[in-house]
């Protein structure tokens, strides 16, 4: 209880003390979850019709919408036979009033920079398959993330949504033909079902671990985040390989706790992939029979029991 | 440890046949609905005249008192009245008063002269008391208080001049809509399941472990930082999830409904209560029990 007094005052000492006390000895958080449990998650793909792939993830009260658009562009000079991904995170003013105007830009920059770091390796997405003609044309995937509601744990929700959106992305097949002057002409096939799908097996998922007191928790809500001094963001593939580790927050972390948190992150991250892929395959197999929910998250409760 | 992932489903329309009769006398309107075209009525809050027709400007029920028609909104900020019990958070420490956030349109005011001094002294507040205000209540502290009066601009003036009000110790705060809290004689309850609850009229509900012994001179000044036992914490977590479930399904909150919900939730694990289907099941059982209680 020594560090109660120096913590963030906005939640009040006593609610912080209660939060930390229960974590110290037992695996019980305020909402009954254990330290490694996620909140209720809902995933839906193919909701935005003018993108090549989209997904919406609801994690507790955090709502994230990801759209992927494939465009033809020039490959990077260092790697002429690969395509690339561009990330942009938009913190909508719908999420909190603080994001109005330019308020959400800083958070958006931080989120997109972390995403660049996470995907900056050859194995997450097969970039060679995105190449059309080496040195001249390649597919550029513009991944746009829109934050609709913020209730803590943005990174995890965004990474799950990106994986689902990339799984859902349908890139049209191209045919390259030579015309009379020797220049290359690109033809996109007219058939909407003639498309290429991405292999998202190696796409990593991000796990955020927040240090609260002496323990660390996965999937912290805003309240728990206010009680934590520092967090570790770790991105893990389905095999348990770590692609990026980042520490955020003003407090300091002991090297031993970093090691423990990394081990927990690897274990939790590895366990995320299998149910996610299963769910995505199930959704795909439903095909046209799938009931599209979209943004109609209406709670239609008619009987309002008011004071008579 | 596995994450609970699933595809989203459209939530079903939930309505109880027994309460349909109760809806006969109530008129629910949405903004833009024409209430009446008769010009003989006076228009009250929540209405406006649109081309000689009385139209609703908020979503709620129509109330008619003789010639006055007004619409009481279903979801609104807290409109305090004298005598309401509120749970609030200190946002500012100013000269001779604190500003308290109580989910109303303006921050409420807690004057230095409206709090009990430590030790229960009764004397005029001096300049020294003003300087040591921060020792008693700081920014971020939670308090329970009663509304003493309402200023002309609508801001509430609070007081903690009783031993049952004051700074709150260890516990959990649940923020709900003020229209869900039923007005009762007392808002402080010691639930038989092992925890205590303060149902603030402003929608803030405070759950805390039942204090073992009553300290007379403590009176809201002394906050205990002793670790809370696991069984107490489990009860409080379960109550918190039950409150969120009742709030999501717009059930009126008072000690009986909270207790019935707690009992209905016992067969489930605490963390499962927040899953949509479990929430529905628990709330249905609670509603049935409440209907049985009524008649």
TrEMBL record, chain A:
Localization of this protein: Cytoplasm; Nucleus, Nucleolus
SUPFAM superfamilies recorded: Ribonuclease PH domain 2-like, Ribosomal protein S5 domain 2-like
Main location: cytoplasm
Domain Exoribonuclease phosphorolytic as annotated: residue spans: 38-172, 202-267
Gene Ontology molecular functions: mRNA 3'-UTR AU-rich region binding
CDD domains (UniProt xref): RNase_PH_RRP42 (cd11367)
This protein's record includes keyword Nucleus: yes
Subunit composition and interactions: Component of the RNA exosome core complex (Exo-9), composed of EXOSC1, EXOSC2, EXOSC3, EXOSC4, EXOSC5, EXOSC6, EXOSC7, EXOSC8 and EXOSC9; within the complex interacts with EXOSC2 and EXOSC4. The catalytically inactive RNA exosome core complex (Exo-9) associates with the catalytic subunit EXOSC10/RRP6. Exo-9 may associate with DIS3 to form the nucleolar exosome complex, or DIS3L to form the cytoplasmic exosome complex. Exo-9 is formed by a hexameric base ring consisting of the heterodimers EXOSC4-EXOSC9, EXOSC5-EXOSC8 and EXOSC6-EXOSC7, and a cap ring consisting of EXOSC1, EXOSC2 and EXOSC3.
Protein name per Swiss-Prot or TrEMBL: Exosome component 7
Species in which this protein is naturally found: Hucho hucho (huchen)
Automatic annotation (TrEMBL), chain B:
Span of domain Exosome complex component N-terminal: 28-65
Locations listed in the record: Cytoplasm; Nucleus, Nucleolus
The K Homology domain, residue ranges: 171-210
Keyword flag Secreted: no
Domain RRP4 S1: start-end pairs: 77-149
UniProt xrefs under CDD domains: KH-I_Rrp4_eukar (cd22525), S1_Rrp4 (cd05789)
GO CC terms in record: cytoplasmic exosome (RNase complex); nuclear exosome (RNase complex); nucleolus
One record GO biological process: poly(A)-dependent snoRNA 3'-end processing
Signal peptide: none
GO molecular function annotations of the record: exonuclease activity; RNA binding
Keywords recorded for this protein, A-Z: Cytoplasm, Exonuclease, Exosome, Hydrolase, Nuclease, Nucleus, Phosphoprotein, RNA-binding, rRNA processing
Pfam family, one: S1_RRP4
Similarity field: Belongs to the RRP4 family.
PANTHER family referenced in this protein's UniProt entry, alphabetically: EXOSOME COMPLEX COMPONENT RRP4 (PTHR21321:SF4), PNAS-3 RELATED (PTHR21321)
The protein's name: Exosome complex component RRP4
């Amino acid at each position: 209880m020594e560090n109660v007094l120096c913590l963030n005052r906005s939640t009040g000492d006593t609610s912080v003390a209660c939060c930390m006390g229960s974590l110290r000895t037992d695996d019980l958080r305020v909402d009954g979850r254990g330290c490694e449990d996620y909140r209720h998650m809902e995933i839906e793909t193919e909701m935005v019709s003018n993108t090549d792939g989209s997904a919406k993830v609801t994690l507790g009260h955090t709502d994230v919408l990801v759209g992927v658009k494939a465009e033809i562009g020039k490959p990077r000079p260092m790697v002429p036979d690969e395509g690339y991904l561009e990330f942009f995170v938009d913190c909508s003013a719908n999420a909190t009033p603080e994001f109005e105007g330019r308020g959400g830009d800083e958070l958006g920059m931080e989120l997109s920079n972390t995403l660049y770091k996470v995907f900056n390796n050859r194995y997450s997405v097969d970039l060679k398959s995105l190449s059309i003609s080496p040195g001249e044309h390649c597919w550029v995937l513009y991944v746009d993330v829109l934050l609709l509601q913020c209730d803590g744990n943005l990174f995890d929700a965004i990474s799950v949504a990106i994986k689902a959106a990339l799984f859902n992305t349908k890139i049209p097949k191209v045919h390259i033909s030579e015309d009379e002057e020797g220049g290359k002409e690109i033809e996109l096939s007219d058939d909407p079902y003639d498309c290429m799908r991405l292999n998202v097996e190696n796409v990593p998922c991000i796990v955020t671990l927040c240090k609260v007191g002496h323990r660390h928790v996965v999937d912290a809500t805003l309240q728990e985040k206010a009680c934590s001094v520092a967090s570790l963001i770790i991105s893990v593939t389905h095999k348990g390989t770590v692609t990026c580790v980042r520490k955020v927050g003003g407090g300091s972390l002991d090297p031993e706790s970093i090691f423990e948190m990394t081990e927990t992150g690897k274990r939790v991250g590895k366990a995320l992939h299998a149910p996610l892929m299963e769910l995505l395959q199930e959704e795909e197999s439903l095909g046209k029979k799938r009931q599209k929910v979209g943004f109609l998250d209406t709670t239609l409760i008619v009987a309002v029991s008011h004071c008579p | 440890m596995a994450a609970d992932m699933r595809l989203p489903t459209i939530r079903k329309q939930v309505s109880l046949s027994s309460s349909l009769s109760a809806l006969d006398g109530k008129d629910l309107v949405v903004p833009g609905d024409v209430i009446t075209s008769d010009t003989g009525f006076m228009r009250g809050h929540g209405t406006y005249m649109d081309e000689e027709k009385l139209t609703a400007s908020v979503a709620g029920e129509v109330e008619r008192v003789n010639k006055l028609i007004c619409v009481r909104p279903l979801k609104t900020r807290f409109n305090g009245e004298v005598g309401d019990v509120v749970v609030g958070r200190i946002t500012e420490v100013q000269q001779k008063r604190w500003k308290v956030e109580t989910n109303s349109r303006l921050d409420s005011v807690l004057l230095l002269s409206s709090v009990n001094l430590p030790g229960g002294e009764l004397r005029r507040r001096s300049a020294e008391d003003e300087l040591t205000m921060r020792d008693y209540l700081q920014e971020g502290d939670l308090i329970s208080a009663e509304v003493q009066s309402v200023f002309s601009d609508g801001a509430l003036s609070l007081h903690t001049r009783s031993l049952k009000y004051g700074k709150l110790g260890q516990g959990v705060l649940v923020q709900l809509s003020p229209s869900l809290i039923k007005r009762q004689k007392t808002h402080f309850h010691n639930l038989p399941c092992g925890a205590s609850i303060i149902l603030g009229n402003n929608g803030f509900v405070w759950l805390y472990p039942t204090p073992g012994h009553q300290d007379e001179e403590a009176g809201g000044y002394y906050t205990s930082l002793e670790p809370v036992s696991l069984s107490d914490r489990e009860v409080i977590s379960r109550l918190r999830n039950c409150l969120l479930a009742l709030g999501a399904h717009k059930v009126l909150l008072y000690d009986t409904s909270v207790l019935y919900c707690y009992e209905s939730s016992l067969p489930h694990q605490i963390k499962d209560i927040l899953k949509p289907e479990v929430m529905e099941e628990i709330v249905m059982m609670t509603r049935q029990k409440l209907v049985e209680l009524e008649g």
